[in-house]
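REQUEST ID: PR-0412
SUBMITTED BY: lab tech R.K.
PRIORITY: routine
TASK: structure prediction, single protein chain
INPUT:
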Amino acid sequence: MTSFPLRAPLLFLVALVTVVIGRATEPANLGVLKNAVRAYVQSGEYERDIAKVTTEADAWLQARARQGGKNLTVLFDVDETLLSNLPEMESIDFGYVPQIWTAWIAKAEAPGLTPACELLRTARRLGYRVIILSGRRERDRPGTEKNLKAVGCGDYDRLILKADDVRVTTGAWKTEQRRKLVAEGCVIVANIGDQESDFAGGMAEKDFKLPSPFYLMK
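STATUS: complete
OUTPUT:
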């Protein structure tokens, strides 16, 4: 057995106490992090990473369609999945102002994220039911529908949005909506989104997470 000098366990105890107390180190400067996000997008790496995920999803949808079955369904998120809100986010330096966000949705000018939009169209060609499940509110329906149509994503079976008065987290709400869809007989073969909360609770045969460098949705 290896022996240690007495100071070793004492140093370990000091280190453990330091961790428990929680002496935080200075985080990276927020301005530097924002610039890193901008560089990630401007370099084209962001869209390439999206394309990697959607290519994997495309292969899965092709293979799963050959297996057959009834009520085969593909779920899509909206924000940072089918639509990019980067113009709005950059206009307020990656902040969040509810009134500005609501006005942005109503304008229906968000560009489409091409790889994900192409995946939606592929899903339709393969005969899948396409359901769009978004944490946007019912009051946002007109702008959302108009925007989806404008980017070539208007061919879907249902657009499910949060009621204006719902107060649960988006993750919990989406889990409940997927549970209802399964109870209705939907076989969710793929779930495509950008937030970890898009996949909480499972119920899809496969999940496909797109990169999400902008914000965190619970």
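NOTES: Residues 45-67 form the longest helix (23 residues).
REVIEWED BY: pending
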